[in-house]
Amino acid sequence: MRRLCALVLLAAAWCAHAAEGPAPLKLWHAYRGGEETALLEATNLFTKETGVRVDLLALPYDAYAAKLTNAIPHGAGPDVFIFNHERLRNFHSQNLVAPTAGAFQREDYFSNTVEALEVDGQVFGYPMSLKSLALYINTKLVPRPPATTAELLALLPTLSNPAEGRFGLAYESGDFYFHAPFLFGFDGKLFDEAGKASFDTPGMARSLAFVKKLQDEKLMPQEVSGALVKTLFNDGRAAMIISGPWFAGEIAPSVSYRVVALPTVSETGTPLRPFLGVEAAFVSARTEQAPRAHQLARFLSLGEASRVRTTVGRQIPADVQAYQLQAVKDDTLISSFREAAVNATPMPNTLEMARVWEPMKLTLRAVLQGGAQPEDAGALADRRYRALHRERPPEANPVPWLGLAGVMALGGTAWVLRRPAPGMTFRQRYPDVARAARYVAPAAVGLLVLVFIPFSVGLGLSLFHHDAGQYTFVGLANFVDILASRGYSITEPLSFYFTLVVTLLWAAMNVVLHVSIGLGLALLLKDPLLKLRGVYRVLLIIPWAVPNYITALMWKGMFHQQFGAINGLLVALGLEPVSWFTRFSTAFAANVATNTWLGFPFMMVVALGALQSIPPELYEAAEVDGASRWTQFRHITLPLLKPAMLPAVILGSVWTFNMFNIIYLVSGGEPGGATDILVSEAFRWAFQRNEQYGFAAAYSVLIFVVLLGWSVFTKRLMRTEEAA
Question: Which residue, 147, 428, 602, 680, is most buried by CB atoms nearer than 10 A?
Fold first, then answer.
């Protein structure tokens, strides 16, 4: 009877599973706004047509590629993912993408979009949309768009008034993606005949000089972000902007605009040629539902899904037939971007392309911030490129390392199980070990999963070199390269020693300011005669209560050279505005000011609690003896504050030592990585410099060693204080 019941339940479960239909497909993307809405509608159409449900996951673009390369090899990634084509060769080398299936027809798409998805004669991915830059113009301010750079230079002064915050042109000038049209328009090249990156060229210098002239003559704003471009254009304070089709969804309804192709460079006769990006639906090489995954990818790129992405998501379709639809014909934005894409340069899908972004970012910002001349910037980019992209160290023999690990494991086990006296067994030494193990088991499991396993993996990873998905055992080569500063001097920002000194200076200055400001405010709030003490306490704790990344972004905006509140205050006082992120001293000061605002409330709360625990009789006795306020503070307050403040100082120093958010969001390491600290430098080696995970792990191990030394020192300091 039991067996019969079990069979019935099993059959019922199978029927329920069968009724649910096929397993859902996982689709990853980085869309936002209208593009995400359009994708959701397109997948709903696919579900209605096939009965296969699609689970969508939106990821932040900055971390998207890293999540794909880490998830797919372990079978935890998507069945289909949408990504731009420039990383295709990297994905292919790591066996992350599958070639298109038999239903793929090249003639369904524009030929250049298919060519962009080719690797070794095979096509990987289904082209969905084109993305390139074009010129948005406010038709009320610019009735006739400029056709050449000469016309542009003649028009911009009539549209610009820096005193009123008005500019003829605005775009994200510090981003190489937006500078590429100028590079190619001035006949500059990004790669040599062998396909290697080459920056020190006449075209590069001319393009940088042209953009620098626009900024110096205040024809376009400085330190431009995407949010600033949007604000200026919607407020009518930027007559023209350079952006892609995604910007159309951010334009206010009250703004009358049109989109045209970028002008032609008068000196060369070459159009400003932006990068052509092809966004495609890629099928994971590890999917267990390959036929359905290919069906979904092809569905999203053609037909009704293409119409939805065009009309709702405002994407420029790669589908040839989409341009026969009346809704697409009537859309001037789509047709304008399609015409602008004719002169676009397809972005190479080689590994070399992924390596040029950071050197070019350094070059652009160095020139625009006045740290380098246009004619010298190419050599600067070449040098940074060679320093960032290390050659693979020689392969090491892992056998001795495995033997050493085994000896250490045996030694540790023997030390734990050692006998303190002859004839004494382990159970005699630890009679309650079973009960103790049950008590500590939950905490031990948590520490094992959250601390020891990640630490062990990171320690092991530091002995490997990662390149395009391939891990090579190199022993201590990563540590040797870091400690020997190979490729750059110890006085350069990329050096471990330079970054270590900056980190120590950063931690020391912040802790001193946190303690001094926090203690000073605590002494004021302790005064019983102070009115509204409760209100002040609440107001002063707010900086600590607000998430630090929100505070960092607020202070970043306040330090903006042209539109920041701090420079506005300086101008109101009759002083010159400061370009905060062009010099180490001012950029470092901006970081310290932001983190001081975040950190002093914690020290204030600790100090206030400790002050309230000091008996008032001690101060009364000191006053009777004629002690001054300074003497009371020195001989009563400070000694009794030490037991509470010393642990807070130690904790605050560790927090500050690894305060990644402030460095990354406020200065961004500017100028030229000089204000990066150890933890942000490790992040850049892992995720912004060709995914050198082993090198980044070695950096992290060295950070651990530094903090371990600090913890040993503070432990002894605490023991000394307790003994006193």
Answer: 680
Q: Which residue has the tokens 């023991």?
A: 719
How far apart are alpha carbons 42 and 297 in whole angstroms? 11
Could you tell me if 535 and 525 are in contact, meaning their C-beta atoms sit under 8 angstroms apart? no
DSSP per-residue codes, 183-202: HHHTT--SB-TTS-B---SH
Beta strands 25-29 and 54-58 are parallel
Helix residue spans in 123-255 (DSSP H): 149-159, 176-185, 202-216, 226-234
Contact 362, 381 (CB under 8 A): yes
- By three-state DSSP, how is residue 581 classified? coil
Contact present, 341 and 279 (Cβ < 8 Å): no
Q: Which residues pair with 260 in a beta bridge?
A: 135
What is the residue type of 720? T
Is the CB of residue 345 less than 8 Å from the CB of residue 177?
no
pLDDT (tens digit per residue) in 572-613: 888 888 888 888 999 999 999 999 999 999 999 999 888 888
Say how far residue 266 (Cα) sits from the centre of its chain: 37
Contact 555, 543 (CB under 8 A): no
Contact between 28 and 55 under an 8 Å Cβ cutoff? The reply is no
For residues 678 and 504, the answer to whether their CB atoms sit within 8 Å is: no
Q: What's the rounded Cα separation, in Å, for the pair 516 and 521?
A: 9
CA–CA distance, 325 with 137 (Å, rounded to integer): 26
Task: Write the pLDDT tens digit of every residue in 516-525.
Answer: 999 999 988 8
**Alpha-carbon distance 87 to 97, whole Å?**
11
Preceding amide of 22 cis, omega within 30? no
Structure tokens at 365: 């910002």
The packing angle between helices 584-612 and 638-657, to 10°, is 140
- The closest of 290, 271, 402, 280 to 345, measured between CA atoms, is 271
Dig out the tokens for 597 from the structure: 């605002």
**What is the value of pTM for the model shown?**
0.77
| DSSP state, residue 302 | S
CA separation for the pair 262, 272 (Å, rounded): 6
As beta bridge partners, residue 27 has 56, 80
DSSP letter, residue 240: E
d(CA 321, CA 222): 42
3-state DSSP assignment of residue 685: helix
Question: What type of residue is 531?
Answer: K
504-548 pLDDT, tens digit per residue, is: 999 999 999 999 999 999 988 887 777 887 788 888 888 888 888
